[in-house]
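AAA family ATPase: structure, please.
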Amino acid sequence: MIKTVKQACTFNPVIKDYRMAEGIENLADLIADNGDGRDFFARNFVTHGMEQLFKEGMLRLSGKSDQAVFELTQAMGGGKTHMMVALGLLARHPHLRPEVLPVLISAEK
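Here you go.
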C-alpha cells in the first residue's frame, strides 16, 4: 500500500505554530546582517533552480561573468524573496558556500 504524505514525512514542528510571520523571509534581516545564514539554510532545501541562480550570481560577483540581470519569474508566493535572501547570504558569508553549494559551484568563487 502507498503511504500518505503524513505517513511518509516528518513535519517540522514549526508548522504547528500559527505565528507564520517568523517563517517569512525578510530582506531587512539580510541588510541588517542578522545571523550568519546557517539557520536560514538549515530550514530550507536548495533546489536546482536556486543552484543555477547561485552559480550565475557567484560568477558575476567574482568578475567571471558579464550577466548582470537575473529574471526571477515565479508567481506570487513562488520564492523570489527567498532566493534573493539566499544569494545575499552566500555573497555576504563566504563560509557558507562550501556548506550550501555543490562542490563545482563553490570552487568557482
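Notes: The mean pLDDT is 76.
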